[in-house]
Automatic annotation (TrEMBL):
<keyword id="KW-0812">Transmembrane</keyword>
<feature type="transmembrane region" description="Helical">
    <location>
        <begin position="138"/>
        <end position="161"/>
    </location>
</feature>
<feature type="transmembrane region" description="Helical">
    <location>
        <begin position="236"/>
        <end position="259"/>
    </location>
</feature>
<keyword id="KW-1133">Transmembrane helix</keyword>
<feature type="transmembrane region" description="Helical">
    <location>
        <begin position="75"/>
        <end position="97"/>
    </location>
</feature>
<protein>
    <submittedName>
        <fullName>BASS family bile acid:Na+ symporter</fullName>
    </submittedName>
</protein>
<feature type="transmembrane region" description="Helical">
    <location>
        <begin position="207"/>
        <end position="224"/>
    </location>
</feature>
<feature type="transmembrane region" description="Helical">
    <location>
        <begin position="173"/>
        <end position="195"/>
    </location>
</feature>
<feature type="transmembrane region" description="Helical">
    <location>
        <begin position="279"/>
        <end position="300"/>
    </location>
</feature>
<dbReference type="InterPro" id="IPR038770">
    <property type="entry name" value="Na+/solute_symporter_sf"/>
</dbReference>
<keyword id="KW-0472">Membrane</keyword>
<feature type="transmembrane region" description="Helical">
    <location>
        <begin position="109"/>
        <end position="131"/>
    </location>
</feature>
């Protein structure tokens, strides 16, 4: 290959590698840059579905099949975690929304909360868990099983709780989700077959950088109107932001407490997964035909999604250090 071509490819690779090395800091910075440049959001919004497909493809492409198979030997824990995130969470949210009358008083917000609870965990959850030093393998297998079930569970809960609030039928929602996931999986499988798992692992850092760029494109597309909404209705917008943080950390805390018997480090990893909901998948399935309040709430959820991993790093480090100390003590007592 000519030297000028080597240079042309080397510079972008170095830039992507540097970006990928920023870890949770890079993920946290995305949300502020995306909110600060509204025209970019308007420019990128037509490509929202493509960004979601790319994020899903990268995540499927990087699945560690060996780790996946090894965790299938612990089906009870995986089944319990899967049932909690795909059935328990949307059932509780749906019952609360109906019991409090939220579906009639604030249908746009009720729709947002139900779509959030019905969504599968974000495909980036294992990578974020790994960046925080937590057990990413349990998150990975639970993510895969939850994602496989979400076309069916989302269709079920849409029929139970949403009624005519959606512009599409529950069956259409399930079929669209299934199609998006199947297309992403097929593309990822083709990439793994062409380039090989070893090459994908070898280029982990630049792929991380590419992932951050696509995450930015998605965040910018969904957050394009945040500044104008904040200026037009500041109290309402800030209230939605506070609600998004409250729901995020409530899911995190409840999940961590529910699974504390497997150890707080692994329970926190599951809590991170459950609180990071893949709203992009729901946006793609509904083609973005949603009420303004639903859109605004989805935009506000980007703040806890991107900031929480960085905020939780000290806790994760403490739990990891405690786990390593316990392991060392146990190993010493057996010698």
């Amino acid at each position: 290959m000519p030297s000028f071509l080597n240079t042309a490819f080397a510079l972008p690779l170095r830039a992507l590698t540097w970006l990928g090395s920023q870890g949770t800091r890079g993920v946290a910075a995305i949300v502020f840059v995306a909110a600060a440049v509204p025209p970019l959001g308007a420019l990128l919004r037509p490509y929202l579905t493509e960004a979601i497909l790319c994020l899903l493809c990268i995540s499927f492409m990087r699945v560690d099949l060996a780790a996946l198979y090894s965790h299938l030997r612990r089906p009870a824990l995986v089944a319990t975690a899967t049932a909690w995130t795909t059935i328990g969470v949307p059932l509780i949210v749906g019952l609360i929304a109906h019991a409090t009358g939220l579906t009639t008083r604030a249908p746009g917000l009720s729709l947002a909360l139900m779509l959030q609870s019905m969504a599968s965990p974000m495909m980036a959850s294992p990578a974020l868990a790994a960046l925080m030093g937590l057990d990413a393998t349990l998150v990975l297998i639970t993510l895969v099983t939850s994602t496989a079930l979400v076309p069916f569970t989302a269709s079920l809960f849409a029929g139970l709780f949403l009624g005519d609030m959606l512009s599409i039928t529950p069956l259409t929602l399930g079929l669209k989700l299934l199609g998006i996931l199947a297309a992403s999986l097929l593309a990822a499988t083709a990439i793994r077959w062409i380039f090989g798992a070893a090459a994908i692992q070898r280029h982990k850092a630049p792929i991380d950088g590419l992932n951050i760029i696509i995450l930015f494109a998605f965040a910018a597309a969904i957050m394009g109107d945040v500044v104008s909404d904040l200026l037009a209705q500041p109290v309402f917008t800030i209230s939605l932001a506070a609600l998004s943080f409250a729901i995020y950390f409530a899911l995190l805390a409840i999940t961590t407490l529910l699974f504390r018997r497997i150890g707080y480090e692994r329970a926190l990893a599951l809590g991170l997964m459950v609180s990071q909901r893949n709203l992009g998948l729901m946006l793609a399935a509904t083609a973005g035909v949603l009420p303004p309040t639903t859109w605004l709430y989805f935009a506000m959820t980007q703040f806890p999604i991107h900031l929480a991993p960085y905020m939780l790093m000290p806790i994760a480090r403490r739990l990891t250090a405690r786990g390593e100390a316990s392991g060392a003590t146990a190993a010493g007592s057996t010698n």
